[in-house]
Design goal:
Elements: E1 2-11, E2 14-25, E3 30-34, H1 39-42, H2 44-53, E4 63-69, H3 81-91, E5 102-104, E6 107-108, E7 114-115, H4 120-129, E8 134-138, H5 142-145, E9 152-156, H6 159-167, H7 185-188, H8 200-212, E10 216-219, H9 226-230, H10 233-236, H11 242-255, E11 269-270, H12 278-282, E12 283-284, E13 290-291, H13 293-296, E14 301-304, H14 312-316, H15 319-324, E15 326-331, E16 334-339, E17 343-348, H16 367-374, H17 379-383, E18 387-390, H18 396-399, H19 408-425, H20 439-445, H21 450-462, H22 467-483, H23 491-499, H24 504-507
Parallel strand pairs: 3-4, 5-8, 8-9, 10-17, 10-18, 11-14, 14-17
Antiparallel strand pairs: 1-2, 2-4, 6-7, 12-13, 15-16
Helix pairs in contact: 2-3, 8-19, 8-22, 21-23, 22-23
């Protein structure tokens, strides 16, 4: 007999429908599997055999052929186990229920229990888009599946339950749908803008960076609060929308890093160590292409502390994602595109010892050492960082001052107003922040007066800026105008935006 069960393969964060076809016929006893299965899928033969026997069902002693169609798409992962088992039971006549409209996902234990698998959310989203509305998933994946509306998801704990459910011997209620509620960064992270004394310029730059989704570099001697300032970024970022949460959750689900909550409700804040490899940042892998740190930071912050200490190849790999907001990882097995729309926050010292330019401490580095240290960051990468801020040492009197600093909540309120203006402006576009604008958008949404053009021209000439830097100054000026709730960009906005590029020559 022949049977077909629908499952899904994962390609990056997208699901591809796969028909699990089983043919059970007379002949020499064998169990063959075709259709480009990887090692995990091939090993499912033994898991399925034991699971069927230990579930008080009969494993067919015949010539068995399993085909995973389409045959030209590589099948990876253990989530095909349930579909293979049900397909075998149907082909051997032990199950006669209709299963054409239901997608089955799950790994089988040897005793027939259903174990959770990675990537349930992206599979369900892709399957729903293709017209599927009924699913069987492992019980431990119930929370992840509960956020997909207009679907019937049955979270079962074993192969036996799945067989009883399909045959009508047992009834199960679908997973109850949950409503999304964003987690506020200030409630989770211990940092707060009010804890940072002084550093007015750096605080202002962080507010602008978050409001428009711009990249920022904090440079200065050690101990000036650069890391503390960077850790304040997620506390002033707007709460995640449901659509953003689904995008981020798909990435973390594929990575196998999803919490029991089942959805990412807090904006990511990724801090890879400076020993991180290019692959760990960009993504990749030998058997299965997985997202890297820059994709896991999607819709959040990627913080690179001590930027010059990262390898040159790792830093240069950031150039394309910072422009395109996506990254395409190409390996021998194929190419996968992951989203990578994040705010880059980097910090660095002015020299190896950290005291170059300090009025209080003597620098012990030679000019050659300082030059070599700064040249670890290439000009093209630095050109893609919109705001470059010098952090000075804070005076002791400022540290013990009783003056109240602005809290993250106060800054966040202004950021959310600016983001709301941007969402309204870009309602017809595929993005929602100023940093995502291309040249055609700059001409449409950022028209400059003659006075603004004059100020920008002077900055362009005096600071020896590139064409890219000019565009980024306009984007930052647009964000500053939004924070001021000003409809048009004014010369003062251009001046402030250009002031954050003034240190580029010193840093590089």
């Amino acid at each position: 007999m022949l049977s077909k069960i629908t499952c899904f393969a994962l390609l990056g964060i997208y699901g591809i429908p796969v028909e699990v076809e089983s043919d059970v016929n007379r002949g020499m006893v064998s169990f063959d599997m075709v259709g480009l299965p990887d090692a995990a899928v091939k090993e499912s033969k033994e898991r399925v055999r034991s699971a069927i026997k230990n579930s008080a069902l009969i494993f067919p002693v015949n010539r068995i052929t399993i085909n995973l169609a389409p045959a030209d798409v590589k099948k990876e992962g253990s989530h095909f186990d349930l579909a293979i088992a049900i397909s075998l039971l149907k082909a051997s006549g032990q199950l006669t229920a209709e299963t054409e409209d239901i997608v089955m996902l799950g790994e089988l234990a040897l005793d027939g229990a259903l174990r959770p698998v990675a990537g349930i959310l992206p599979i369900l989203i892709s399957a729903k888009a293709k017209g599927f509305k009924r699913f069987i998933v492992p019980k431990d994946n119930a929370n992840e599946a509960s956020y997909i509306e207009d679907t019937e998801v049955y979270a079962l704990s074993s192969l036996k339950q799945a067989v009883n459910f399909l045959s009508g011997e047992e009834s199960f209620s679908p997973v109850e749908h949950k409503s999304f509620k964003a987690t506020q960064g200030a409630a989770v992270y211990s940092s707060d803008m009010s804890f940072v004394k002084g550093q007015r310029t750096a605080k202002r730059a962080i507010e602008i960076a978050v409001a428009g989704g711009h990249n920022i570099l904090l440079a200065g001697p050690p101990g000036t609060g650069k890391t503390m300032l960077a850790r304040c970024l997620p506390t002033v970022m707007p709460d995640m929308t449901f659509d953003e949460a689904l995008e981020v959750t798909k990435i973390h689900s594929v990575s196998g890093e999803l919490s029991e909550e089942g959805i990412v409700s807090l904006r990511p804040f990724r801090t890879p160590h400076h020993t991180a490899t290019t692959i760990s940042l960009c993504g990749g892998g030998n058997a299965k292409i997985r997202p890297g740190e820059i994709s896991k930071a999607h819709k959040g912050v990627l913080f690179l502390d001590e930027l010059p200490e990262y390898t040159r190849s790792a830093l240069e790999s950031l150039r394309q994602p910072l422009e395109d907001r996506v990254i395409t990882v190409t390996r021998a097995g194929g190419a996968v595109t992951f989203p990578a729309d994040f705010v880059l926050c980097a910090s660095m010292n002015p020299c190896p010892c950290g005291n170059y330019g300090s009025a209080e401490r003597e620098c012990i580095c030679t000019p050659a050492q300082i030059s070599k240290y700064k040249n670890r960051i290439s000009g093209p990468l630095l050109d893609r960082i919109d705001l470059q801020v010098e952090c000075d040492n804070v005076k002791y009197d400022d540290l013990i001052s009783e003056s109240k600093e602005e809290t993250s909540a106060e800054v966040k309120a202004r950021v959310e107003r600016a983001r709301a203006i941007q969402r309204e402006r870009f309602a017809e576009e595929k993005f929602s922040t100023n940093s995502n604008m291309g040249e055609k958008h700059l001409r449409k949404y950022c028209k400059l007066s003659l006075e603004c053009e004059r100020v920008l021209k002077e900055a362009f000439i005096n600071l020896k800026l590139s064409v890219r830097a000019r565009s980024r100054i306009i984007k930052v000026a647009r964000t500053i105008a939004d924070l001021d709730e000003c409809e048009n960009i004014l010369p003062k906005h251009i001046l402030e935006a250009a002031s954050y590029r003034g240190s580029s020559g010193e840093l590089n």
